[in-house]
Write a structure and sequence with these properties.
Chain lengths: 337, 337
């Protein structure tokens, strides 16, 4: 048995199971120290990996006869579809057979599975979904990006710790700067939630609080961890996606306006392609669900094999860096009663 | 005396008083039906307009010896600097000497002046700052963009009405579609505030509620009025500014990467310039402060003469369209209690 065992929901995502299995094979070839447990219909998965003789012995199959669909009620699905590929993969973490789980299935279901199958790290108020995004100067983590609305200050206080532990131990940022999303830079700015959170973050000693992060500075890269209530985080995430599309649509429209700019657009195409790649989810991997008792990574629903490979690599690094253990031990430094 | 009298804070903004006075002269030349009351140091302003003989007689001067600076505490400044150009301009509205006031001064001070000098329309819970922004298909209003944090559902309910009245009577949108910023399109999505607001908006008959507006659709132009808590609205506004800068910086970086893309960038320059202009505050004017008992427009701090001219035109349209009266009479259709 290898050093790291990672459970993979083979049936989650738009391109399952083909892209998922292909991503698993790629990851196995790249990382000699991992084993992968594929959760899904046994016979079908067996047939899919039969040809991969070089890594076949490092693949385990966890039979699962059901699939959680994208449009199902997450809570209900997780409760009733006990034999779904996602639940089976998460159970492997719960039961200690794997240290990590990766799924490209429904976000809501991954959250529910994380909470109720894998379970929280003792002391964690709320697990948070925390994608790593491409800032101008460097990558940064947005936590929470939508798992928890109506947050309390103590949740946000912990998000700062969880994000800091991740950036330090997975992405090797020496001393992650943690910013609190707010509508002004001064301590007294903001709403009730941010004012109270600011006071708590200032007092703690578990991470480097760098003050309020004005919304205009979220993507500059001046912060390594950007903390927000899940409602605001989700608004930022979705608005980013929407605005980038709108700006590029406007640019396309204006560029088609004259022959000169049309030629310019054709010549500049490689630059546009690079931007697209820079902003692309597939190169970044997935979003970790932090605060649960295992390395759980939610890959994007549209993930191809490359994204799955990256999400597996990310889960592997989370285990290697002992993110779960370090969150657990860091909680005591937050000194909130 | 002309049909519309507009008070102008001659000393507010980065380029005051020169750009402000120049903007006033331009507006007077363009609109024969307005008079302008310039608030500021009498002798200095008199000298500045002395040469404009064609419009001189339509300019009144309200002497004001103080200026509210950008870094002052808004509440304190508005209370203590009774002879400041902003307070004097707002008092003209309060006293019925003008129907509108325009200022490019500190946003916080304009809000405080609107609330405590001009006063609320009876029945309005909270005035809101509501810029009109360039969407992909059409312009839309973002209300509230930062005047009120920790909003209650009934505030947001009224924001929908105020925005709808403005878009209909100032920008001639026949039946403005009002959307509620949320993290999902279904009625049951969101946090406590948006869920309760959704229920209220669905019941009212004062405007066309078009459901939840997911953050990714804010700029598409599918909604004419986008309603949000002031914290979220401000996050959206500032993040838009920040992200646009980051994306264009990334694009510039990538375009400098090769000779081919450099040439492309040079040829495409006019298209970039058009986008910049499309996104530019100066062409749009200012943000109305809706819910106060007069047509109050906050022009951008960096406004040049063109932006001031546009903000005056906007204030004029607000008076012409009787935005204040229509908000007052529309409140009864909200039936919230």
């Amino acid at each position: 048995m290898s050093q790291y065992v990672i459970a993979l929901d083979a049936m989650g995502g738009d391109h399952a199971p083909e892209a998922i299995v292909e991503g698993a094979l790629r990851a196995l070839r790249k990382y000699a120290d991992i084993d992968i447990l594929l959760a899904g219909p046994e016979e079908r998965l067996k047939a899919m990996v039969a040809g991969a003789q070089d890594v076949r012995e490092r693949i385990g199959i966890l039979n699962a006869t059901q699939v959680i669909e994208m449009d199902e009620s997450p809570m209900l699905a997780v409760r009733t579809k006990k034999d779904s590929s996602m639940v089976v993969a998460m159970n492997a973490v719960k039961e200690g057979r794997s240290a990590a789980a990766v799924s490209a299935g429904s976000t809501g279901a991954v959250l529910a599975c994380g909470m109720f199958r894998v379970g929280r790290i003792p002391g964690v108020e709320r697990p948070a979904l925390a994608p790593v995004l491409p800032g101008l100067k460097n990558r940064f983590m947005l936590i929470d990006s939508g798992a928890n609305v109506d947050c309390q200050p103590k949740y946000l206080l912990q998000f700062g710790l969880m994000g800091s532990v991740y950036m330090k131990n997975v992405l090797d940022v020496e001393q992650p700067r943690v910013g609190l999303v707010n509508i002004g830079s001064e301590a007294e700015k903001g709403n009730k939630l941010t004012k109270e959170t600011y006071a708590l973050m200032e007092k703690q000693t578990g991470y480097a609080f760098a003050g309020n992060c004005e919304a205009r500075d979220v993507f500059t890269g001046d912060y390594d961890v950007v903390v927000a209530d899940g409602f605001d985080g989700n608004v930022i995430l979705k608005h980013t996606e929407g605005l980038a599309n709108v700006l590029f649509s406007m640019l396309r429209e204006e560029m088609m306006g004259s022959l000169r700019t049309k030629i310019g657009a054709a010549l500049a195409k490689p630059a546009f392609r690079k931007i697209k790649r820079r902003m692309d989810y597939n190169t970044v991997g997935g979003a970790p669900l932090l605060g649960v008792n295992g390395a759980v990574v939610k890959a994007h629903g549209s993930s191809g094999a490359e994204a799955i490979e990256n999400a597996i690599a990310q889960a592997r690094r989370m285990v290697e860096g002992d993110v779960v253990g370090k969150i657990r031990s860091g909680l005591s430094s937050l000194c909130e009663e």
